[in-house]
């Protein structure tokens, strides 16, 4: 065994029946070994495996059973000693798996030395969570949340020595209310097992609690909000799981559990939604009026159908081809680097998100953070089939590129997509482009803007606000002003806010740059030279 001062441990260990040189570089923290198997036809042998310390899940001493002991080189040892390293292995389509490798040692002392060195390396990974609070929605998606957690996630958390407090929710808002009661500060993260709605609930609980503890009034749309340093983890078990897909690249509980274990951190923009100085909701994925609002309103009555409710209501809403009149006003994002028509997407370590954050910090240092108040507003009146504001791409299994493929997770802006009244055929062409490689914004009836703030007011509300004079009528402001007695609900849509409906059709929206953090790292770019290839964790260089 060689142990030079640089902190490198090199030993000849056993991998099955064959010997193999294994190296542990303490700085920068890499475990390396070379596959010893003989060459097979059509396959090269001796591939080097490199596992960064940040992707080692656990190390443990291994009992060599009788069968293994009687075979190969183990036979030559009086009492074999071995240790197993559990680590992240990348598979296709951004999937992560927990893989393991067992190394045999000639004596107990060498085995203990390796185990100790690896454990010390694991202890030095400071961003890893040790204690988590887990909320499971047993009724989300296909109602598999509890099973998914118990079978796929809990064993991994146990392996990684993470302790958990688990709450199985009994009703909607259980998790949100609970977050105002428990001592959240003793946890390194909050995990939600469910869909986008469950994430939204946990996020509202966490943001609300942090603001309460910081003495910040969420109803004031101008107040800067306190950032949440406690990360949120998502174990996908919902119907759309768009936030998981757009931040990890796949909807897969095991992959998400591994991102939590290794302590990933992905900041996320959050939009705050107000009306008349009243806080309504926060949104991280889609805030949609018209088409997506109507799908949601219809699908809520069909929750019993599970995820298929969206296909049913989607088809019905498409056929209804309803458009809505109103006024959209917005402030174009000036402090951001990218544009919604970029070809480049937001990926792990995104340059655009980093640069935008730096710009924002520079502005803060020069006391210019409130400069946006004076920035010009652009006003668009029209008839819209859909108004979609997205803080991220909104990629999901139904739409692998999402509603705005170049939107960024953490650039402090949202992409505002206006789909004006057009024929059914053209609207279908637009929807089909959600699912293929063609440019969704390359239509004369679609406009897209990168914004920091926007407002919307439906025509009915505008008319009512100017028409209705007495207070009694104003309470029924959303009813038909031409026929005050008939109570027919005018064609107002509702807002779909991350899969939940909003009570008001008039909204004022402001993007809060990187308000929350997730246990994720954005979608990895395998072509990136710092990424590893899918078959052997080898560095692509
Ligand atoms: N025990 C419970 N009973 C009923 N509703 C619950 C319970 N726990 C949570 N909820 C609510 O269920 C809603 C939907 O849950 P969730 O997001 O997990 O599934 P989904 O709607 O099928 O998926 P998606 O949001 O991805 O479309 C959430 O808004 C949450 O508030
Ligand atoms: C003929 C081909 C037409 C195909 C059209 C497919 C379009 C799919 C786009 C999906 C966009 C999802 C955006 C994410 C929204 C989530 O915040 C929200 C909560 O989970 N989900 C929905 O509102 C559920 C929305 C579901 C819509 C179907
Ligand atoms: Ca954004």
From TrEMBL:
<dbReference type="InterPro" id="IPR045363">
    <property type="entry name" value="CERK_C"/>
</dbReference>
<dbReference type="InterPro" id="IPR017438">
    <property type="entry name" value="ATP-NAD_kinase_N"/>
</dbReference>
<dbReference type="Pfam" id="PF19280">
    <property type="entry name" value="CERK_C"/>
</dbReference>
<dbReference type="GO" id="GO:0000287">
    <property type="term" value="F:magnesium ion binding"/>
</dbReference>
<dbReference type="GO" id="GO:0001729">
    <property type="term" value="F:ceramide kinase activity"/>
</dbReference>
<dbReference type="Pfam" id="PF25382">
    <property type="entry name" value="PH_CERK"/>
</dbReference>
<dbReference type="InterPro" id="IPR057465">
    <property type="entry name" value="CERK_PH"/>
</dbReference>
<dbReference type="Pfam" id="PF00781">
    <property type="entry name" value="DAGK_cat"/>
</dbReference>
<dbReference type="InterPro" id="IPR050187">
    <property type="entry name" value="Lipid_Phosphate_FormReg"/>
</dbReference>
<dbReference type="GO" id="GO:0006672">
    <property type="term" value="P:ceramide metabolic process"/>
</dbReference>
<dbReference type="InterPro" id="IPR001206">
    <property type="entry name" value="Diacylglycerol_kinase_cat_dom"/>
</dbReference>
<protein>
    <submittedName>
        <fullName>Ceramide kinase</fullName>
    </submittedName>
</protein>
<feature type="domain" description="DAGKc">
    <location>
        <begin position="127"/>
        <end position="277"/>
    </location>
</feature>
<dbReference type="GO" id="GO:0005886">
    <property type="term" value="C:plasma membrane"/>
</dbReference>
<dbReference type="InterPro" id="IPR016064">
    <property type="entry name" value="NAD/diacylglycerol_kinase_sf"/>
</dbReference>
């Amino acid at each position: 065994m060689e142990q030079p001062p640089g902190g490198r441990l090199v030993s000849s260990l056993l991998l099955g029946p064959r010997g193999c040189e294994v190296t542990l570089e303490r700085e920068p923290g890499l475990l390396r070994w070379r596959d010893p198997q003989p060459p097979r036809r059509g396959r090269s042998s001796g591939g080097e495996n490199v596992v960064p310390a940040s992707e080692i899940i656990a190390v443990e001493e291994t009992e060599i059973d009788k069968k293994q002991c009687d075979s190969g080189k183990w036979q030559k040892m009086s009492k074999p000693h071995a240790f197993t390293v559990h680590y992240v292995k990348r598979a296709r389509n951004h999937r992560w798996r927990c893989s393991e490798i067992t190394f045999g040692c000639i004596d107990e002392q060498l085995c203990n030395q390796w185990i100790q060195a690896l454990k010390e390396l694991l202890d030095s990974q400071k961003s890893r969570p040790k204690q988590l609070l887990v909320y499971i929605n047993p009724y989300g998606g296909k109602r598999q949340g509890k099973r998914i957690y118990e079978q796929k996630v809990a064993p991994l958390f146990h392996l990684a020595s993470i302790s958990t407090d688990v709450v199985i929710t009994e009703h909607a808002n259980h998790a949100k209310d609970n977050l105002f009661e428990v001592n959240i500060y003793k946890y390194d993260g909050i995990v939600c097992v469910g869909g986008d709605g469950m994430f939204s609930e946990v996020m509202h609980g966490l943001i609300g609690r942090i603001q309460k503890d910081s003495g910040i009034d969420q109803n004031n749309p101008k107040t800067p909000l306190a950032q949440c340093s406690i990360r949120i983890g998502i174990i996908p078990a919902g119907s759309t799981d768009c936030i998981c897909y757009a931040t990890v690249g796949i909807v897969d509980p095991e992959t998400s559990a591994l991102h939590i274990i290794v302590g990933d951190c992905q900041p996320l923009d959050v939009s705050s939604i107000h009306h008349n100085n009243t806080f309504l909701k926060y949104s991280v994925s889609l805030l949609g009026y018209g088409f997506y609002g109507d799908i949601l309103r219809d699908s809520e009555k069909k929750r019993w159908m599970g995820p298929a409710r969206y296909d049913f209501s989607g088809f019905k809403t498409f056929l209804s081809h309803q458009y809505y009149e109103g006024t959209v006003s917005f402030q174009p994002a000036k402090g951001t680097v990218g544009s919604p028509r970029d070809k480049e997407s937001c990926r792990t370590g995104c340059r655009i998100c980093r640069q935008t954050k730096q710009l924002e910090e520079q502005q803060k240092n020069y006391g210019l953070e409130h400069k946006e108040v004076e920035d010009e507003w652009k006003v668009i009146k029209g008839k819209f089939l859909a108004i979609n504001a997205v803080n991220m791409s909104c990629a999901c299994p139904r739409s692998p590129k999402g509603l705005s493929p170049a939107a960024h997770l953490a650039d402090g802006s949202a992409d505002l997509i206006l789909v004006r009244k057009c024929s059914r055929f053209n609207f279908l062409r637009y929807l089909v482009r959600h699912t293929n490689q063609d440019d969704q914004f390359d239509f004369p009836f679609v406009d897209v803007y990168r914004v920091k703030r926007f407002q919307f007011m439906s025509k009915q509300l505008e008319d009512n606000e100017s028409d209705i004079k007495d207070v009694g009528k104003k309470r029924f402001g959303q009813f038909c002003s031409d026929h005050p007695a008939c109570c027919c609900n005018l064609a107002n849509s509702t807002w779909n806010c991350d899969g939940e409906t909003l009570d008001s059709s008039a909204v004022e929206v402001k993007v809060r740059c990187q308000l929350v953090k997730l246990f994720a790292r954005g979608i990895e770019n395998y072509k990136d030279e710092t990424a590893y290839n899918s078959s052997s964790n080898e560095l692509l260089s």
